[in-house]
Amino acid sequence: MATDRPAAPSFQEELLRRARERAAARPTARPDSADRGPAPLSRAQHRMWLMDRLGHDGASYSVPFATRLRGPLDVDALASALTELVRRHEILRTRYVQRDGEPCQEVLPAPKSFAVPVVPADPADAPPLLAAEARRPFDLAAGTVPRALVLRHGSQDHTALLTFHHISLDGPSLEIVAEELAALYETAVRPRETSAPAPGSDPAQPPSLPVSKPQPQAPPPQYADFARHEHRAAADGLDEGLRHWHALLEGAAPPRLPGPAHPPTDLTARPTGSHTTPLAPEVPAALRELGRRHHATPFTVALTAAFAALHRCTGQDDMVIGIAGTHRRGTAMRGLVGLCVNTLPLRVDTSGDPSFSTLLTRVRAALLDAQQHADVPFDRIVDRIGAAARGADGTSLVRVTADVLGTPTTLRLPGTDAEYVEVGVGEAKFDLSFALVDTDRPAALVQYRRAALDEEAATAFGATYAAVLTALAAATDDLPLSHLAKGAGSQLPSTLDALQGSDAHPAERLLRCHPDVSDATVVSPAGGPLLAYAVLREIGGPSPAELRAHLRDRLAPGLVPAAVTLLDVLPRSADGTVDPAYLPGLPSLPAPEGPHADAVREGFAALLGRTPAPDDDFFALGGHSLVAVQLAERLRRALTLPLTGLDIMQARTPRAVSALLDARAAERAAASLRTSTRPGQTGGTGRTASAGQPAPRAGRARNGTVLVTGATGGVGSFLVQELAAQGHPVLALARPESAHLVAADGVEVVEGDLTDLDGLRKAVQDADAIIHAACTFTRPEVDVAAMDAMVDAWSRGPFVFVSSVDAYGHPDGGQVAEESPSHEPLSPYGRAKLDCEAQLLRAAGTAGRGGASAVRSPLVWGPHDRLRDQLRWGATGVLYQAIREGRPLAVPRPGAGGHAWYGAAWVHAAALARAVVSCLDAPVHGVANAISGHVTWHDLGTELSQLLGATVDFAESDDIHPDLNHHWHYHSDRLARPLRPLPGEDLRSVLAAMITPSPDRNPSRA
């Protein structure tokens, strides 16, 4: 910890000299790397990738960049500039995948053009339109090409929005992007301006010669080179840095902030709050002068004020505030677009009522020390410290951050006046953030997560921070902290008082403050873990796991009970005190038993290397974010129950994870029971017994029965599996002879097929949602008649149709966007799909019907016998059989027939199932493509040859076999998120699984 003795100027100069020497000694990334192919993730990217895999709100990591442009706007020139920008900077067209279990980044081909949609909109209607566009999630596995939207308010009044993913750029990158876009826009717009006739001139006369264009911009450094360099140098000094941070932060705890006693009713719509307190115009200059006198930057002065305000409001002396560090060093990184940031935790001691200059010295020393070890990733620091540094999301050691905000970046296009437009998206990344707004309208800004901080407390924090800054600007003496902004923020809300002012256990006090809890107690039995008991105000309140997560968000790990048990009433003695003799589970809780507990215990042991006790903490056992993702995926696949990495990090103990799985299994069973006892159906066999009309049900379709046609097929099997894993009760249409193939918990079988139109109508009437995946393949008239019958009977809920990219026919270009028009020739199969889509989309939203989605898929691959047969004998049969028989095969030469590429689009059956099921909750109201990837015939043949152990000579020819005459790439933006690949869904893995037959024909075990 820092001492009270101010450092001598010579000591300060020595610290700065050492910092410069170490920074200069670090090699910087070079832009001329010859490395090719996939690159490892940088440390900053790896953390962002983990947050995405854990299931964090994707909108939180969107970076919206909006500017109001007044003046003539050339949208075509803007599109041209964006196209060139994305071509120049590979990071803006990079996707993030896994190779051999490790994440990596792959650069995608530069797009030939960039779409810039233009939407007429009144300025008053712009904020929700901009927010909705910015909140659209990115799928890292599909790529993070930025999105553009222009709102046209008038002929010379527009708002331009560019949305990036944070994994692609940081604050300095945005300035580079804005500067380059302006130059590229000017280059694009000049030829049109100079070729247009001047007003009043003779159009027949040739235009004057155009002025010379700006010289092409120099090639920028590429972020993948920076990531490769960082990866190669990863071991240098990392262990030493981790030891330094561990020693520095040992015993540190996140600040205890008062959470809301009652969750805000509009929390979902407005998860983030802020308080802005205007400052006098002279305050920033006065703070800069204060810093100059003490040899400190304005940022250090503002950061010290944040420590002072946090100390004054919480009364705590030992505090940690996070700041954003940067890896940008040296001229080689000038012009680099990418994510070059790291969170640096600064631990500062505010005890002893120090003067502000003394506190400033402590903060400056902590800042210099942090910058000496800024290359150590924050998540690695947290992993090294262990469970003591973890909150509910695994990173709550830094709950509070501080920054200085200057004039925001705007897009300054030639010929227009630019005005910055704020676009709010997602949830704040930290519980509380202080910021000094250093612009022509200075202000003290406090931003906070409304789920984590009481509104009244947030107001007090904001007022205190503003008062401290104002007092510092006006002070003539070096005041102690107790005299800075005296009286401001001295009283925080009752929630913090409840934490600090009672003899009851903090967990008990917090439970009693919960709006859904009427009574609670916490006991600490001898030899056993801390236990909590709660009584809910009404049925349907929070679950034990949710209450425990509520406590863990607000308490230190040692104060969180091992379990929360719900009771109808607390047993009390005659004097009104709780009688522990009648509390269930005392003196100790037995170890959980059953298949869920066994799977959890085995998963912990397999991934953490030791068999856990029921109440061992996941993080104390060595777990971290990536292990949480792996454990959740393992349990989800084994138990077919919904589970995420965040669930693991919130539950944390085997007992709590087992209880969470038990609860979700019970919810699924209850939903299945409600379905099996509907009128007109039997409760034993699960097959339709009569034509009785089901009673109407309330609630979302997600909670109701989903009819799946084609349930025994290759796609249908994965659909049923995905629906069961998400807790949907399933009504599966199957022929009598194959009904046993889909019999499972939560699955009700209805006998029938596409030729039984009356049976189809009855099945549709009994369902709350429909997924139509069945197809005859060879009898298009049957497919169209079946769709007609189903649409006729459809009266509620969403309808998802599994269609085919064959409905596009033969498009003119090589790139096929979603909902592109169809082009002749169409096969009978493709035309039938198109006709079925038209029937469905015409009926959607009428007569009580829900939304409709037509999901077009290409070749579907996965470990299922039906899909294996398609690989061997379907569209790829000519390739597969030639390889199996060792016959030479000629594949189309790139450029043959005027097409640069020949190959196949494909989708993994599990990814297709996730995409289709996602449309139940979020219909696309049109057509969406479901694509996992594209592979050339040559590459596919090479993979199959290796897996089959064959040696085949592949020749390239200008003669194109009809089965190999495929040269289209299909875009799949609308369903990109559910389509992102999970482990084992890469091309080689799925081909290997398909070539190796499954002994039991079960896709979940293939």
For the structure shown, list the relevant keywords.
alpha/beta; seven-stranded parallel sheet; globular; disordered N terminus; single chain; disordered C terminus; 17% strand; 1006 residues
Structural account:
The strands form nine sheets. Strands 20-19-18-21-22-24-28 form a seven-stranded parallel β-sheet, sandwiched between helices. Strands 5-6-7-2-12 form a five-stranded mixed β-sheet, covered by helices on one side. The chain is built from 29 helices and 31 strands. The model is unreliable at 1-11, 23-35, 198-215, 391-395, 489-502, 674-702 and 997-1006 (pLDDT under 50). The radius of gyration is 31 Å and the shape is globular. It has 1006 residues and is α/β, with parallel strands linked by helices.
Topology:
Blueprint (H helix, E strand, L loop, with lengths): L8 H17 L13 E2 L2 H12 L7 E9 L4 H14 L5 E6 L2 E6 L10 E3 L5 H10 L11 E8 L2 E9 L5 H25 L27 H10 L5 H12 L22 E7 L4 H11 L4 H17 L3 E9 L14 E9 L6 H17 L5 H8 L14 E6 L11 E5 L10 E6 L5 E7 L5 H20 L19 H7 L5 H8 L3 E7 L7 E6 L7 H9 L10 E4 L28 H14 L16 H15 L5 H7 L2 H23 L29 E4 L4 H12 L4 E5 L12 E5 L5 H9 L3 E4 L7 H14 L5 E6 L10 E2 L11 H16 L8 E6 L1 E3 L3 H9 L3 H9 L3 E4 L10 E6 H13 L4 E4 L3 E4 H12 L5 E4 L11 E2 L5 H4 L7 H9 L11
Helix pairs in contact: 2-17, 3-5, 7-11, 8-9, 8-12, 9-10, 9-12, 13-14, 16-17, 16-19, 17-18, 20-26, 21-22, 22-23, 24-25, 25-27, 27-29
